[in-house]
TrEMBL record:
PANTHER family (alphabetical): HTH-TYPE TRANSCRIPTIONAL REGULATOR YJDC, TRANSCRIPTIONAL REGULATORY PROTEIN
Assigned keywords, A-Z: DNA-binding, Transcription, Transcription regulation
Protein name: TetR family transcriptional regulator
PROSITE patterns referenced in this protein's UniProt entry, alphabetically: HTH_TETR_1, HTH_TETR_2
Length: 196
């Protein structure tokens, strides 16, 4: 059966990347549907047909961001031999990613929630941040069990410290901190890590 309407006359991936940059730059609340259609170069009917409503588009943007620009944390946890090395790498890569002039500064997941009045969007972003903390805490617990960290180390507190550093580095980058300044913060942050 033939579909209704005209075929899409735009590149979906390109339009999605443009929406990602808009949400990253301005946040969820401050990015209107008219902003999105203008930035994406499509009409509102095409936006709704291809992506659903604004919130559904944003959910897809967050998935794309997490698989691309925001994937450095997951990669570090998966690839580094210890939780300490993973956190050190995450902080170093956050300093580079958050200050990269090729895209908006900071972290989309941290910034998009600013002044957000949508409970669903707030929950989506909170769940994403909490899942990241849980993955890191799990990795830290594994290192404690393996004797790579002291038995008394507080996995949840160490994970929250790393999360707070990453969120703070995001805001610092948006406020103009350089990569070097953020790398210096990362170095200080690692000084609190316990050694076995």
């Amino acid at each position: 059966m033939k579909g209704r309407g005209r075929p899409r006359s735009f590149d979906r991936a390109t339009a999605l990347e443009k929406a990602l940059v808009a949400f990253w730059e301005h946040g969820y609340e401050a990015t209107s549907v008219s902003d999105l259609t203008r930035i994406m170069g499509i009409g509102a009917p095409s936006l709704y047909a291809a992506f659903g409503d604004k919130r559904t588009l944003f959910e897809e943007v967050v998935r794309v961001y997490s698989d691309t620009h925001g994937a450095f944390g997951d990669r570090a946890i998966a690839e580094e031999p210890t939780a300490r090395a993973a956190v050190e790498r995450m902080l170093r890569e956050a300093a580079a990613e958050y200050t990269d002039p090729a895209h908006p500064y900071g972290c989309l997941v941290a910034h998009a929630a600013t002044n957000c009045t949508s409970p669903e969007v707030e929950q989506l972003l909170r769940e994403r941040r909490n899942a990241n903390l849980a993955a890191l805490a799990s990795r830290i617990r594994a290192d404690i069990a393996a004797g790579l960290l002291p038995a008394g180390a507080d996995a949840d507190a160490l994970a929250r410290h790393a999360g707070a550093m990453i969120q703070g580095m995001s805001q610092q980058a948006r406020d103009g901190a350089s990569r070097g300044e953020l790398e210096a913060l990362a170095e200080i942050a690692m000084a609190i890590w316990p050694r076995d």
